[in-house]
Design goal:
Layout: H1 2-13, H2 16-45, H3 50-78, H4 80-100, H5 104-131, H6 138-168, H7 171-174, H8 179-184, H9 189-204, H10 209-213, H11 222-227, H12 232-248, H13 256-263, H14 266-284, H15 288-295, H16 300-328, H17 330-350, H18 354-369, H19 372-381, H20 388-417, H21 420-441, H22 449-465
Helix pairs in contact: 2-6, 2-9, 2-16, 3-4, 3-5, 3-20, 4-5, 4-9, 5-20, 6-9, 6-16, 6-19, 14-20, 14-21, 16-17, 16-18, 17-18, 17-19, 17-21
Length: about 475
């Protein structure tokens, strides 16, 4: 109880923009839970196999990966508030297309465009929270942001599991409909109840736009005003100068010290870690609902309960993450919890028992995700402030590009080899990511983030100053 009271106090003392951002995430979390639970089952009910479902996930994540860096530029140019509002409106329109279209090509096109727009929402998250918070409150703020989304998505998953059951009990909804409705809704009864549930999720997301319109405009940094005065001639002069340095110093690319410096850079290590996590996650995360429904025989209602319980457990565990990070250090806390998830994932993947899987699924998800907010805060703190936009774009690009590559691979493996193989490959990828994080940051009990950021900046300046 004291922990909850502490988080309530933290919320009250947060900056106004941070509070409104959390409220918006809370309002959209229910819809997110419904979509995550039912969309793959909807495609499955339309008659598509796991390989096509993987292709839909693939094009969405490719779109997000390609748009990561342009999204970062848009955020720097337009500000977080504008990007949040425009991206949320567009994602709503494209989400409607993903639900109403049923042919393969429109599904793939809308999925790709939705991925492009969602890149802005992914990139804006960490820098916006960092900009609207103080260093002392960031661990709690990032964890609270995850908890708010997780808790509300629990309600979404429970509601998402129940909605198809309720719609099936309304006879006229699953019978042939007159022309305007029959053109919009799926003819298959099972697919139609999923489609109606997903449309309900879209309606529930509308109130989440209100807090975004109430956000205060982003302050413009002084250096942005001065940057507008930079002329094209000055840019060309700087470009020629750097080109001369690169041409004159090509031999230094063979310098082992230079390569060791960059390979030990915090930005490089965390980007690699996120890429490995993304590759592992893409193999099995999109197919968890299919795994429970087809492999273990669960109904959508049962999986909604299981998934909701897993999300609730993750939310509760996330509340403990700042406490764990304060005692072990941020990197060590992430390494410990993620390592604990690996044996749980392997047993879950090879299980044939619905009861055993229902017990292991929340434990695995909680162990893997409870320190995600801590990792986000840590990944922002170990790079200089002027690099944070680039850093977050790099992390997100690495994660989603790897995710997009492994998602169709996971669908193909499921069709040809079954589900256990994807869990085994994911465990290997996660293990490599944990090793990278431990080797880079986990040896110190309580890492000094600001000192690390200073060392990173000095090392980068030194590397760029030397001839290449």
């Amino acid at each position: 109880m004291s922990l909850l009271i502490d988080y309530v106090r933290q919320f009250v003392h947060l900056q106004r923009n941070a509070r409104l951002y959390l409220i918006s995430n809370a309002l959209s979390g229910v819809s997110l839970g419904i979509l995550l639970l039912l969309y793959n089952l909807y495609l499955d009910a339309l008659g598509y196999r796991a390989d096509f479902i993987g292709a839909v996930q693939f094009v969405a994540t490719v779109g997000a990966g390609l748009a990561i860096f342009p999204a970062g530029l848009c955020i720097d140019r337009l500000g977080g508030k504008t990007v949040l509002i425009v991206a949320s409106l567009l994602i709503g329109l494209l989400g409607a297309g993903q639900i109403l279209f049923r042919q393969p090509l429109p599904l793939l096109i809308t999925a790709f465009l939705a991925g492009v727009v969602s890149a802005a929402l992914l990139v804006v998250n960490a820098p916006y929270l960092t900009q609207n918070s103080l260093p002392a409150e960031r661990s709690h703020l990032f964890s609270l942001n995850l908890v708010v989304t997780l808790v509300t998505s629990v309600a979404g998953r429970l509601l998402g599991g129940a909605l198809p059951v309720w719609f099936r009990q309304i006879p006229w909804l699953i019978e042939p409909l007159p022309f305007p409705l029959s053109a919009l809704l799926a003819p298959q009864p099972e697919a139609r109840v999923y489609q109606l549930a997903l449309m309900s999720a879209g309606l529930l997301a509308i109130p989440s736009l209100v807090p975004l319109f109430l956000l205060d405009p982003d302050p413009r940094p002084p250096e942005e005003q001065s940057s507008k005065k930079v002329t094209l001639c000055a840019l060309a002069s700087n470009l020629r100068k750097h080109l001369r340095e690169i041409v004159a110093g090509w031999r230094h690319w063979l310098d082992r010290k230079l390569w060791r410096l960059w390979l030990g850079n915090a930005l490089v290590l965390l980007t690699l870690e996120q890429g490995l996590i993304g590759f592992g996650a893409g193999l099995f995360i999109p197919y968890f609902n299919l795994f429970f429904v087809h492999q273990l025989g669960a109904s959508s209602w049962q999986f909604g309960l299981i998934d909701g319980a897993a999300t609730a457990f993750t939310a509760c565990a996330t509340l403990l993450a700042p406490w764990l990070a304060a005692r072990l250090g941020k990197a060590r806390a992430v390494v410990l919890t993620q390592a604990l998830s690996l044996p749980l994932m392997l047993v879950l993947g090879f299980s044939r028992s619905l009861l055993l899987a229902a017990l292991l699924y929340p434990l695995r998800q909680g162990a893997m995700d409870m320190t995600m907010g801590v990792l986000q805060a840590f990944s922002m703190e170990v790079v200089p402030a002027r690099w944070r936009g680039l850093a977050n774009s790099s992390y997100q690009a690495a994660y989603w590009i790897a995710y997009s590559l492994s998602t169709p691979l996971g669908g193909i493996i499921i069709v040809w080899q079954g589900y256990p193989s994807i869990f085994l490959l994911a465990a290997i990828s996660y293990s490599l990511a944990i090793l990278v994080l431990w080797r880079g940051f986990g040896r110190d009990r309580q890492p000094e983030e600001e000192a690390q950021a200073e060392r990173t900046e000095k090392g980068a300046v030194k590397a760029t100053a030397e001839p290449h």
